[in-house]
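Supplementary notes for students who missed Thursday's class. We covered one full example, reproduced here. Read the sequence, then the structure, then the short commentary at the end.
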Amino acid sequence: MTRKTTQKTDTMKSAWSIESLKQFQHPSLATHLGIEFTEVGEDYVVGRMPVDQRTHQPFGILHGGASVALAETLGSVAAVLSLEDPVRQRAVGVEINANHIRSVREGWVYGRCTPLHRGRTTMVWDIRITDEAGRLVCISRLTTAVVEAR
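Structure (token representation):
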């Protein structure tokens, strides 16, 4: 007995560029924190965030909440880029978690977001945040729900 299977592609649904992602950078938490998109590909989004007075906690190191903000920003944008019909659908965060591995005092941190699961009603994203030397700073997982736009 043979079964015919269809393979779903794991790519973004339309061609996006760094220039086209600027539509997501209107005044928001992401712009306040200095988050910038630096690369977008068929199955990933990359961005960076400065480690400075905007993103420090009181002891002069990167605030864990700032890392989570970077992770959710990258994951949310990746989810929107993966929607079948972004005119009729929205991707909304359902759950996010983060493990903070190492501290950073200054410079930039870089996040790379890739899909773990892209379904019809939910998506799960893996976000790895590294420092300028490429050392792991934070691992985060974001779950988004696909809902109808209102």
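Commentary. The CA atoms of residues 48 and 110 lie 4 Å apart. Confidence is low (pLDDT under 50) at residues 1-9. If anything here is unclear, bring it to office hours.
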